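Quick one:
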Amino acid sequence: MNQLRILMMSPDEVSRSTAVSTLLQAGISARGCSTSLELFGLLHGGGCDAVVLDIGASGEIGYALVARLRGSAPLGIVVAGQGMSVDSRLRCLQSGADACLPDPQDPRELACILLSLARRLPATEAMSQAEETATGQWELRDQGWTLAAPSGTAISLSANERLIVRALLEVAGRAVGRDELGAGLQAEGGGVRASSSRSIDVIVSRLRRKAELAGVMLPIRTVYGSGYLFADR
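Output:
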C-alpha cells in the first residue's frame, strides 16, 4: 500500500497547519503552501496524488484554478473554504472538483474524504517509479523528512520523528537510550523541545502508528530499561 501524497493550498496559515498535522497523523503525506504559484511549483516536482484547495474568497479565479488542475493531471481535487455558498460549491464541482467541504470544516472529515478518494485514483507514475527504485532497505530521503521502506512506501516525518529516526538509523542495530535521544532533541530544538522519556515514547508510538496506517511495519524495537534500536537496515 503506497502512502497517499497531498498538497494543501490555503492562505490561512493556522488552518493549513492544523489540517496538515491531522493528515500526517492519519498516515497521509501532506505538504502545505499559501499561493497557486507555490502549488504549481510543487506539482511540477511530481509525487502528488491529490490537492486540497482553500478558495473560499477567490471567486472566478478559484473556479479557474480547479478547472486548470482538472485538465492538467489525473489528480484528486478537494475544495474547502470559509463562507462558501451552495452555489459556490456547485461551481467548484462543475469545474472539476471531486468534493467540496462546507463550513464548519473538520480536518478528520477531510482525511476520510481523501482516503476514500485514493481508492479511486489511478496509480501514478511517481508511485511506479518509487517501487522500481526501492533500495531494499529503510532509508531517509528529502533531507531526512521522508522515511522510505524497502517496498518504496514513503512516510512523512515530523521534526521530532525525523531526529529520532536519524539517530537510530545512524547506529542501526545498536540500542540508543532515551536520555541520548532526548539530548538530541534538546540540542536540535534549542532547548525547547519536549525530551523526557515519556515524550520519546509518545513520539515513537505515533510513528509506529503512522507506519501501520501506511501499510508497513516499522522495525524500531523497544529495548527495555534502555531505549530503542532500528533492527532492519
